[in-house]
Write a structure and sequence with these properties.
It contains five helices and twelve strands. The strands form three sheets. The protein has a six-stranded mixed β-sheet, with helices on both faces. It is α+β, with helices and mostly antiparallel strands.
C-alpha cells in the first residue's frame, strides 16, 4: 500500500492501523487501566499545555515518523506552530507518551523507541507501565544523545520538554489495581 492510499483508507476503518513500509498493522485494544493512565495524564497536562500554546492529542492521532511510517501513541504533544492545522498526522512532536501493556511493550521499547528518537523535534519519550507503578523517560540531551531516567512510587516526574512536574501517583490515580497508593 502506498502512503497516499493508507492516508485515504485508514480514516474510514473501524480500527486504527499503523503504517510501516507499505504494510498496515491493526492496533491492539488496551485495558481499562491503560486507558485510565492516559486519561489521568491528559487531564493533568492539558490545562498546562494550553497556556503554552501547545497541542495534546490522545490515542487517535497518528505521528508521521518517516515518509513510510505512521505510528499511534497514547499521548503526543506538539508546540510547533505548523501543527495548528494538522489533519492527517503530527509531524513535529515534542513529547510522546506510551502506556505499556503486555501486547505493546516490546514494540514501544524497541522499534518505536528507535524511530521516535530519530525525530528531530522530539525532546522526551515517556513509558508508563500499566501493570506496575513505573514511569521511564528517555530525554534528549545533546544532538543524538538520550538520557534515561526511571521513576517509582514516591518520585516526582519532571517533563522538561513542557516544564511540568507531577507525582508518579497522579498517573495511577483512581485505578483499582493500584489502590490504595502509598504516600
Amino acid at each position: 500500500m502506498t502512503v497516499e492510499a493508507y492516508l485515504d483508507w485508514e480514516p474510514r476503518q473501524e480500527l486504527r492501523y499503523e503504517f510501516v513500509d507499505g504494510e498496515v498493522f491493526a492496533m491492539a485494544g488496551g485495558t481499562i487501566a491503560h486507558n485510565d493512565i492516559a486519561v489521568n495524564l491528559l487531564s493533568a497536562l492539558r490545562p498546562h499545555l494550553r497556556k503554552q500554546g501547545c497541542r495534546i492529542n490522545i490515542a487517535d492521532a497518528k505521528v508521521n515518523v518517516t515518509h513510510t511510517r505512521y505510528r499511534y501513541s497514547d499521548l503526543v504533544v506538539t508546540c510547533d506552530e505548523r501543527e495548528k492545522t494538522a489533519t492527517d498526522a503530527i509531524l513535529y512532536p515534542k513529547l510522546i507518551v506510551e502506556v505499556l501493556s503486555a501486547g505493546t511493550e516490546a514494540l514501544d521499547r524497541g522499534d518505536k523507541l528507535k524511530e521516535y528518537c530519530r525525530l528531530p523535534t522530539l525532546e522526551e519519550y515517556v513509558l508508563v507501565s500499566a501493570t506496575q507503578i513505573s514511569i521511564e523517560i528517555y530525554r534528549r540531551t545533546q544532538g543524538r544523545f538520550w538520557l534515561y531516567t526511571a521513576y517509582q512510587l514516591r518520585d516526582k516526574v519532571k517533563l522538561e520538554s513542557v516544564d511540568f512536574e507531577f507525582p508518579v501517583t497522579l498517573a495511577y490515580e483512581d485505578i483499582a489495581q493500584f489502590q490504595p497508593l502509598e504516600s
